[in-house]
Design a protein that fits this description.
The chain is an alpha/beta fold. The chain has 15 helices and ten strands. The two termini are 28 Å apart.
């Protein structure tokens, strides 16, 4: 089908339909970002976006026709199998319809950079073509949001936008400058409060490990302080990982920036949680995160969240090393998975092999997880 799709989306939007508002990132200078470095930013016109929406609608109508011909009112597994056999190009939108067809995610990095009036028109057109859609979300930069008025953001909400995903990463200004984030902590607070005032749902992302071994305390404390002021609806945890080709890798190679190990990440997370005072829902929903169990509603679940971190830190050194290996290689999802003796012994055997080869486990895992970046 004749419509564009961008490179990434949040894990929470895995079941969404993607509508590309612009291509790549208008800033594209962050030292840690692996996504857009070799991709040039360009704006898409309102007509281009509408054409894509019409192509998506045509695809959805074709999928629905398969269902009707088979005697079904909705897209079920039998319809999916039929679409796969006959028109596999329609499978993406068929899966979206099978999952309810209610959520849409606007791509790429900063949809808010589009003129608010035109973006509002695109949203209204989307809702006209897909009246069953209930949730429309987007990535946006704090710098861009901070230049918008509440009335402009309210206009987008009225047109159908429901949630904004913002990559705060850190609230520590020297670190924001070092990483070339292009925004100050105050601008991030201003942007978050604007989104909330307009009645939109706000999801803020922080990047554990971004301060390395030098700034980890300042990173944890200032990020907690800024998020406490914003009090977003969601706080989503991410973990820094760097591979070749990312600008930050050059600073690592030069010895200027030292990555946190897993124990350091846990201590950083604990300090962050201890100083966070808000009513957000916290989620650790990414494969790179050490502790996926860190999920709950603040402030009520704060003791539980800290308890998860303490359970990890209180484990004996060898058991922590076993968990690190199992988590990073995909054998464990939660700490409780270590109770499976088969998996536990597999990780012990692998640890033994690494020791026999004289290979540092932290270095081994750092290289392994680069495949996820």
């Amino acid at each position: 089908m004749n419509y564009e799709t961008g490179p990434i989306r949040p894990p929470s939007e895995a079941e969404s339909l993607f509508v590309r508002v612009n291509r790549n990132c208008p800033w594209n200078k962050c030292l840690f970002c692996p996504v857009y470095k070799k991709r040039k930013f360009s704006r898409r016109t309102l007509d281009e976006i509408k054409e894509d929406i019409l192509s998506l609608k045509e695809a959805a109508d074709k999928v629905q026709s398969y269902a009707v011909k088979m005697g079904y009112s909705e897209v079920n597994r039998q319809v999916l199998e039929n679409v796969y056999r006959n028109e596999p190009d329609l499978l993406q939108i068929a899966f979206w319809m099978h999952r309810g067809g209610r959520n849409v995610f606007l791509q790429d990095a900063d949809s808010m950079i589009m003129d608010p009036g035109q973006l509002s028109e695109a949203l209204s057109f989307l809702k006209e073509q897909f009246p069953r859609v209930e949730r429309i979300t987007t990535y946006a930069r704090s710098k861009t949001i901070s230049k918008r008025s509440v009335s402009e953001l309210e206009m987008l909400k009225d047109a159908g936008l429901t949630r904004v995903h913002v990559g705060m990463e850190t609230g520590h200004d020297p670190l924001l400058e070092y990483m070339k984030k292009g925004v100050t902590s105050e601008e991030q607070v201003q942007a978050g409060l604007l989104v909330k005032e307009a009645g939109l749902s706000l999801s803020e992302y922080i990047l554990l490990g971004l301060g390395g071994q030098e700034w980890w305390k300042e990173h944890a404390l200032d990020t907690a302080r800024m998020l406490s002021r914003i009090d977003p609806h969601f706080i989503r945890l991410r973990t820094l990982a760097v591979r070749k080709g990312i600008p930050l890798q050059e600073k690592i190679d030069a010895g200027e920036f030292k990555m946190q190990d897993d124990d350091g990440l846990a201590r950083e997370l604990k300090l962050f949680l201890e100083n966070l005072e808000c009513n957000s829902y916290m989620i650790s929903d990414h494969i790179l995160n050490l502790l996926e169990e860190v999920e709950g509603q603040l402030p009520d679940d704060k003791p539980y969240l800290l308890g998860v971190v303490d359970r990890y830190l209180d484990m004996p050194d060898e058991k922590r090393a076993n968990y690190q290996l199992g988590r990073r290689l995909g054998y464990y999802r939660y700490m409780a998975d270590m109770e499976d003796q088969g998996r536990f012994q597999q990780m012990e055997e692998l640890r033994k092999q690494l020791l026999e080869k004289g290979q540092n486990q932290a270095d081994f895992l750092r290289e392994y997880i680069k495949q996820y970046v």
